[in-house]
Write a structure and sequence with these properties.
This protein has 329 residues and is an alpha+beta fold. It is built from 10 helices and 12 strands. The strands form 2 sheets. Strands 1, 2, 3, 4, 5, 6, 7 and 12 form an 8-stranded mixed β-sheet that branches.
């Protein structure tokens, strides 16, 4: 069996104040590219992971992929009460800790392949709970399940009492409260600088603990913006208004903190993309991936990104939204 799983943008967390009894909440968008391809075949005891392009991947990426697949496989087999073996082959990949949701997609893909092998039709929400994903944001789980523009409702404080990233949370994936097809004629440009120092693990946990709770008035302003400006803009196909929301979000709530802690080049690239004609630009999750949305001038945006990056090692991808989830063959 083979699975093709999408990447996703995490546009913003909504409520890291929690005064209404819920925390987190998120807005995200499923992407057609980059994506990952994972193949699974029955094997001897244990889990083995191979790569079709191992010579082109860093040791850190190889280890990250291998660890996620092994961990998710172990948890799924334990849940199913099985002790068989599986051989995984990783085809196409994209970098971990880049703001594109690699860890969640890998874990869900491995869990889904194993559950399907044993004839168990388990949905992505349940798989996320089994393999330990979705403890803060439900965007990756929903992107795997159904694609599109996704808004999740966060977690009740009775289940999650502390402000924590997904990597440190044991909460179940949150409910999707809104999901829309995203205009596929809107182009999305990704700019991925290759920084060594990325936000993950203990560093990410410390940031949540230091900066939360976010002031209530910022959460209220963001919620108003999402409900009365972003969501209608997507439904009505209003690119300019949607772009205005993306630009505004970068200076609000927890997203303001995420941007504040970045290398200054991130902000410079976003400004360059807006100046070159992007309707809106932002940073996905804790970055370093930057995205811009347009419908006409993608070449100008690519040139602006290249000029802003200079000699920095990076990757630029022109893609669009994906309004469907992972595909299994």
């Amino acid at each position: 069996m083979m699975i093709k799983a999408p990447s996703r943008l995490h546009i913003t967390l909504i409520d890291l104040n929690g005064s209404l009894g819920r925390v987190d909440g998120g807005v995200g968008l499923t992407l057609e590219n980059p994506h990952l391809i994972l193949t699974c075949n029955p094997g001897d005891d244990g889990v083995r992971v191979e790569f079709t392009n191992q010579d082109k991947l860093t040791l850190n990426r190889l280890n990250e992929y291998r660890n996620k697949i092994e961990s998710a496989s172990s948890k799924m087999m334990e849940f199913l009460g099985r002790d068989g073996g599986f051989d995984f082959t990783v085809g196409e990949t994209y970098p971990p800790h880049s703001g594109l949701g690699t860890g969640t997609q890998l874990s869900l893909a491995a869990g889904k392949l194993i559950s399907n092998y044993y004839g168990q039709d388990i949905d992505a929400h349940a798989i996320g709970r089994i393999v330990g994903r979705g403890g803060t944001s439900g965007i990756g789980v929903a992107a795997f399940q159904q694609g599109g523009l996704i808004i999740d409702g966060g977690h009740p404080k009775t289940e999650k009492s502390k402000f924590l990233p997904s990597s440190a949370s044991q909460a179940s994936p949150p409910p999707v409260i809104a999901r829309y097809d995203f205009p596929e004629d809107w182009k999305i440009l990704l700019v991925i600088p290759r920084f060594e120092d990325r936000v993950s693990g203990k560093k990410e946990v410390n940031i949540f603990q230091e900066y939360c709770p976010i002031p209530l008035e910022e959460v209220e302003k963001l919620s108003h913006l999402l409900l009365m400006k972003m969501m209608p803009a997507v439904v009505e196909g209003d690119l300019d208004t949607f772009g205005e929301v993306l630009n505004s979000i970068q200076g609000m709530g927890f997203k303001k903190i995420e941007n504040k802690l970045q290398n200054p080049v991130i902000g410079n690239i976003m400004e360059s993309l807006r100046s070159a004609g992007a309707a809106g630009a932002g940073m996905s999750s804790f970055g370093p991936t930057i995205y811009a949305v347009t419908d006409t001038n993608s070449k100008a945006l690519i040139h602006a990104a290249e000029d802003a990056l200079g000699p920095m090692d990076s990757e630029i991808i022109l893609t669009r939204a994906q309004n469907r989830g992972a595909e299994i063959k």
